[in-house]
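Subject: Predicted fold for DUF5703 domain-containing protein, 738 residues

User T.R. writes:
Posting the sequence so we have a shared reference for the thread.
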Amino acid sequence: MLCLTVNANTAAAEYVPKDYVWTSPSRNSSESMPCGGHDVGMNVWVENGDVLFYIARSGMFDENNTLLKAGRWRLSLSSSPFTGADGQFTQTLRLSDGAVYIKGGDAEVRLWADVYTSAVYMEVKSARKTDATLSYESWRYRDRQVTKAECQQCSYKWILPKDCTTFADTIRAKGSTLDFWHKNREQTVFDFTVSRESLDDIKSQLYNPIGGLRFGGRMTAPDFTFTGTSDGKYASTDYRAWHFKASGIKKSTVTITLYTGDEPQAAPSAKTSRKRSADWWHAYWQRSNIQLRVKNKELRNSALTKAVRNYELFRYMLGCNAYGEWPTKFNGGLFTFDPVYADPKAPFTPDYRKWGGGTMTAQNQRLVYWPMLKSGDTDMMASQFDTYLRLLPTAVARTKHYWGHGGASFCEQIENFGLPNPAEYGKHKPGDDPGMERNAWLEYQWDTVLEFCSMILQAHFYAGMDITKYEPLIIQSLQFFDEHYQYLAKKRGVKALNGDGKLVLFPSSGCETYKMAYNPSSVVAALRVVTEQFERYKQMKGIKDVSSYALDSTFKNRLPEIPLRTIDGDTCIAPAVVWERIQNVETPQLYPVFPWRMYGMGRDGLQTARNTYQKDPHALEMRASKGWKQDNIWAACLGLTDEAVRLNTEKLADGPYRFPAFWDPGFDWAPDCNRGGSGMIGLQEMLLQEAPDGSLLLFPAWPDGVDASFRLHATDGRIVEAEIIDGKITHKVMKNVK
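User M.O. replies:
I've generated the structure tokens; pasting them so everyone works from the same file.
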């Protein structure tokens, strides 16, 4: 480990990521390869000689808040070049330009998405003339009743109405053009949720992004002509195919433009898109990278080598939704495939995923976005930040309606319209507090929004992002805790504060795990750190007063201290002062390490945090690398190298599907994006950490004997480049990019 305090400017070599290549076709959609850009994701694979791909786009939410795919495309060439029988087959994800190349015999197909619009391109080339059939396959050619077993795909979950239906799309083909779209009814799960949660009186104040929403796409295939339809079945689902045929072609380009609204916008030419999208991806890989210096065959196939590669492959997947209106979903993102291949008990349509399409589960979503600070991808964080900003008026209105005070309350299982998921909201009887989720896991859990507030502030500290528009979100999220816990205290007794003049955070919740808790350490840490970060931001911006947002300037003085306890004679962070029960398998007593960084390398109390990690019986019992578990991050933050290596290589090991960054469902769904995000964070922390004074800690949890280099980002606009060879740091650079 080295504290880096010098400032140097040294030109770095251009970074070109390695291609990822398959040399044989796939068996089914679970063996697909990701491709995308802007807000579009494709699953691409070759099966029985046909090129197939799904297209998904951020924000295609139907009446039930299922995130629908645009459809499935199939290309068949009469020359049959892609069977792999001749041993000449390759399917390549070229990370350097963000495209997938399929080659076989004398033919090639190139697929990519434009980075600046929601458009997809497919270029087909053949050395000799060939006939071709291009088919659009849709399972939404008819209304489909959502069964009770499928309820997880939408927001109704286990309170699914008997008549819940995924309504048919409108699909029209003529000549060389195909149009398809879905128009939501005005009455949706939003209206159901508003009534269920006793909010009809303020319905006009609430954000509704799905009522009447229209979204769809247009395919233009100049060399093809529509010839008719046929019916078939893929995996578990029947479909109708719209067939377009071409005769004797050697080269053809197909354009598919996706849109929200009445009509698609004009797409750039394939030539323009190809160049500008490749340029964007090239620049993307220059932002940051992690490389191992492989000296022998043993290291070439090591678990750490695979972890570094899968870090990069997952970062590519995140880049495919760089500029979506909605954030990358933790439960599969834009790359879910036929669910029967993820769970044999789920023989449903390709639109299915567990934990909903429009449900923005905060505890999971956060892990997708934290690593973007160090990877230099702060521009991509706006999708998540803007989502919370759109939900702010609803959070303020429901707080005022339920409790009569100020601030903004954001729940954990929150919908894309800002209200608690209607099933998770629970059953309420007369006299119950209608603002509380009657749910054993979720009751009194309001603090997850503070992680996104912290991300917003750190996006400013890291990259100088203008966060002026987010100031009300940060302030009113803090204000809620101040006013609500004084409100609850006054309902219990005369005083709003305890004898020391501090807030009494009760009832509260340490994640979903320590329930009915008094001053849980995760909530205390969140409030203290976000308040401190906002104070720093105010000083940097010269903001002297926030009274217009009704946040009391003395709020920070009312925040309690982190609760501690003694285990085997050593001081540890306590989950809370007291709690009634343990409900889940999280470890909130280590949240003061990450995400809140009150304890750790270069900080006071490092041993206290290590004691917690190593001795807390619940922390030990709950330790795992599955899904959203964070032990890999904490081990790295605490400089526990052996643990960090073990857990991060487990976290970023190859998934069970053909593409190694398609991880199993874990606690959620496949590909598991919160596993990918937590793995990225853990690997970054092994390489680079930052002390409170801004000094940088290089390779603080990196194993001996492994040579590596990285380019990552730090606060104050710094890009940090470092290399470790034979245990010595031989190259280090800090660049000010402001």
